[in-house]
Specification:
425 residues; elongated; 2 helices; 47% strand; 19-stranded parallel sheet; 32 strands
Length: 425
């Protein structure tokens, strides 16, 4: 509750000063440019000076409204990888980007190819970034020339608290477009993340080791997961994803979890009122190690031409050494509710659970899926899962579990029902 109060207070204060009044100090990039002829095309040092002015509160007197850094619509700057590090003296920091910030166009022009991110905010509290501008790291030049492990993310928030990131567009990340790592209380909203369908490993938003994170009202079109949530040794929890349009891409994924045989926990996740178009997956949980994934809700989901609209995979290895038998992440208390649309493959529901760990308390309610190919019948693949389902128009048979009650009315009827109860064979 304290974090929420801080966040809302920050929104109110910043909103009051967006017109740059009430004593708020306005900084502009041009104020820090000493090269008046603008012969220098790299503005990296200029941005560091501007960040120092923001973070250290230079020129702020007692009772002032803080500082804002403003990049206007007609401004364009090229910068090398940047670390914007706190803690800061200012009680909150506002950056408004209406122009364009881009990276050097070729990897060899970057100062340090091994950098974790092009732009990183680390150990910053109460940061508000908004605007109608563009971040362009020119990742398309990295995809074929540099292997995945050496490519940087575009934007990272690392060990930050009370963050708002709103309104910007990001193009063609070398790897993840946005990384949220070790953060508490962040809202990412009204974002547009764009990369070609076949661009490698260009995830939209990656969340790990973070708590109380909201992703709202955004469009994500990439070559990998639109959103991926992982836990790490400290876990991730209280994640809310609402009104996100995903596609193309691999869907919204919980995981992959348990990579490297580490303890990995994700819990209290809500994915609501989201849409998937032409994606490899829709609502997805992928695991391969140990620990647990629990208390999740996928609700009011629309899928269009999606290969696997609903999928849980406890044997996910992502091309690694493979799954270790009996060492799967525990998956339990997962609800899929009000999901409808079209499946691109015959198997619309895939629950591939581990023989030893199994999937427990999987609830499916009001699921209506049809084939993207008219006249084709859909099916479900299910192993070692305890499923309770009602108003599902696809028959589910879960191996060791059999249905004690089962009834389906033709999918053309408005009243269709499939009820399953978990019984050990």
């Amino acid at each position: 509750m304290k974090c929420l109060k801080t966040l809302f207070s920050m929104i109110i204060v910043v909103s009051c000063h967006l017109e740059y009044g009430d004593g708020r100090r306005i900084l502009r990039i041009k104020d820090f440019i000493t090269d008046t002829n603008h012969k220098n095309v790299d503005y990296s040092q200029v941005f560091q000076k501007a960040w120092k002015g923001l973070c250290e509160g230079e020129g702020e007197g007692e009772g002032t409204g803080g500082s804002s850094l403003v990049i206007n619509e007609n401004e364009k700057y090229t910068i090398q990888p940047q670390l914007f590090e706190g803690p800061c003296v200012s009680s909150y920091i506002h950056i408004q980007i209406d122009g364009k910030i881009e990276a050097p166009k070729r990897p060899k022009q970057w100062g340090n190819k091994r950098t974790e991110s092009w732009l990183m905010f680390k150990n910053v509290e109460s940061l508000f970034i908004n605007g109608s501008g563009v971040l362009d790291p020119h990742g398309e030049t990295w995809w074929r020339s540099v292997r995945h492990s050496k490519r940087p993310r575009t934007l990272s928030f690392k060990q930050c608290t009370d963050i708002i990131y709103n309104g910007l567009t990001q193009y063609n990340s070398p790897k993840n477009h946005i990384s949220v790592y070790g953060c508490t209380n962040a809202t990412l909203s009204n974002l547009t993340l764009l990369a070609p369908e076949k661009s490698p490993n260009t995830d939209g938003i990656g969340i790990s080791l973070s708590h109380n994170i909201r992703i709202l009202d955004s469009s994500i079109q990439t070559g990998d997961d639109c959103i991926a949530i992982t836990g790490g040794r400290g876990g991730s929890s209280d994640i809310n994803i609402t009104r996100v349009a995903c596609g193309p891409g691999h869907g919204i994924s919980i995981g992959s979890l348990g990579k490297g045989d580490i303890d990995d926990t994700v819990e209290k996740v809500i994915v609501r009122s989201c849409s998937f178009w032409g994606t490899q997956n829709g609502a997805r949980i992928k695991t391969g190690g140990k620990r647990l994934a629990k208390n999740m809700l996928f609700e009011n989901i629309t899928v269009t031409n999606t290969k696997y609209p609903i999928i849980i995979d406890q044997h996910y290895s992502n091309g690694g050494t493979g799954h270790v038998k009996g060492n799967a992440v525990k998956v339990s208390d997962v609800t899929f509710r009000y999901i409808e649309g079209t499946s691109a493959s015959k198997i619309a529901i895939k629950l591939d659970c581990d023989e030893n760990q199994e999937c427990h308390d999987i609830v499916m309610e009001h699921i209506k899926l049809t084939s993207a190919k008219p006249g084709k019948k859909l099916s479900a693949y299910c192993k070692f899962a305890g499923v309770k389902a009602s108003f599902v128009n696809i028959h589910i048979n879960c191996g060791l579990y059999i249905s004690s009650t089962f009834a389906v009315v033709s999918s053309s009827s408005k009243n269709y029902l499939a009820t399953y109860t978990k019984d050990i064979f």
